[in-house]
Amino acid sequence: MKVRLDHVGIAVQELDRALGFFRDALGLHVEESEDVASQRVRAHFLPAGEPKLELLEATAPDSTIAKYVAKRGPGLHHIAFGVDDIRAALALLKAKGIRLIDEVPRPGAEGALVAFVHPADAHGVLVELKQPKAGHRFTTAPAHRLGSLELISLSDGFFHLDGGAMFGVVPRTLWERKMSPDDRNRITLGMRPLVVRGEQTLLIDAGCGDKMDEKSVEIYGLERGYHLDHALAAAGLAAADIDIVLASHLHFDHVGGFTTRDESGHLVPRFPKARYVAHRGEWYDATHPHERNRASYLADNFLPLEQAGVLELVDDAAEVMPGVRLRRSGGHTQHHQVVMIESQGETAVFTADMFPTTAHVPDAWLMGYDLYPMDTLAFKRAFAQEAIERDYLIFFEHDPLLAAGRIRESGSKRTVERVL
Question: Distance (Å, rounded) from C-alpha 284 to C-alpha 289?
Fold first, then answer.
């Protein structure tokens, strides 16, 4: 088992006082904070060489950090070692008779899997094992219950787009703190379709699929070592189990997986028993492209659906199945839709390219790809406040590290509390 020091965890009682030393006196940069809902703690990471410092602030009086501070006061809480395979590491320690607080890893900050070793067997030190999200790989998230519905966030792999285009007029000095670019100025983005299981089984979007040519694969840095077929299988589903396939809009990274080639090379619907639902206005725009949007609308991804007779066109606010309806946001495209999912008083929203990543939660952080940016801004202003006040669960289709969370606001700053 190879281990490496990942970070040192410090419990704080008053964050502002702690930052007065670590940030203001030592000059350390504070990365974006992250709420870890399962542990009722807010983590603030400060790079300090290769390992980081992690300032841990309780978000509930019954959290482990709150109890620690009440008993011992603020100070060193734990040290964390990175491992490549956390389950193998735990099995090895258990075989050696080492007591574990967590015999099964659980979700931690930064999309990692974590587990703690009992301090009694580590000479009084609380030791955390951490398996990072290596290469931003994301497999199928655990099923989430929303009232009577079951939601499963899938993955069709990752791709890369220009960071400047993804953040529009936001300067690189700001956005690169949240999403680091490669040597070609590209940032890593996920493709996360969503399954909704209720009276029927619905799939919202389907990633880019398997039809891209080699040039496009290279341009977009496509990574599909783990793709939608794997994710469906992990969720106990096959293509034939899908009853409805819904498009938020018809760009290639959202509907490329709607069609595939059969053994004879003909384009056919990928989900053989499904009806495919798209907005009528979006369909018109996709089938009448212009110079500004032509590269995003690839006919092979959607025209075979019409030819196969499985396409259903709907208008604004259409109910796709009980508890699932479209809501026009516009902005990214003229008829871009977010998907409202409601059951037993709870609401989740698949926001597609309205909030493509958690970094796009601030109102002014808009994509350069948006055809109607002022429409995006107007919708975001109203919708974000609605989501905060009504505690919506937001699914972020392109975030490489987080599938879903809740938007929180303190003063003028918005953060996302991880749920999946």
Answer: 9
Supply φ then ψ for residue 299, to 5 degrees.
-60, -35
Whether residue 106 sits in one domain with residue 195: no
Please, what is the end-to-end C-alpha distance for the chain in angstroms?
28
Instruction: Give the Cα separation of 404 and 420 in Å (integer).
Output: 5
What is the structure's pLDDT at 294?
Answer: 94
Measured between alpha carbons, how far is residue 52 from residues 124, 144, 293, 324, 357 in Å?
Answer: 21, 31, 42, 42, 24
Q: Are residues 216 and 93 in the same domain?
A: no
Which residue is listed with tokens 């699914």?
Answer: 395
Residue 7's alpha-carbon distances to 75, 79, 388, 420, in angstroms, are: 14, 6, 32, 23
Residue with tokens 């492209």: 289
Phi, psi dihedrals of residue 403, rounded to the nearest 5°: -90, -40
What CATH number has the domain bearing residue 146?
3.60.15.10
Same domain (yes/no): 43, 172: no
Closest C-alpha among 336, 313, 327, 176 to residue 254: 336
pLDDT at 28 (0 to 100): 78
Q: Please identify which residue in the block is written with the tokens 């003909």.
A: 266
Low-confidence ranges of the chain (pLDDT < 70): 1, 31-32, 38, 49-50, 133-140
Q: Are residues 289 and 222 in the same domain?
A: yes
CA atoms within 13 A on the CB side of 237: 25
3-class DSSP state of 330? coil
Q: What residues are paired with 418 via a beta bridge?
A: 36, 405
pLDDT score at 99: 95
Q: What distance in Å separates the CA atoms of residue 341 and residue 328, rounded to the nearest whole number?
A: 14
Same structural domain, 143 and 123: no
- On whether the CB atoms of residues 261 and 211 are closer than 8 A, the answer is yes
Distances (CA, A) of 3 to 126, 222, 311, 400: 15, 30, 52, 25
Residues 120 and 221 placed together within one structural domain of the fold: no
> Residue 49's pLDDT is what?
63
Q: What is the reported pLDDT for 127?
A: 95
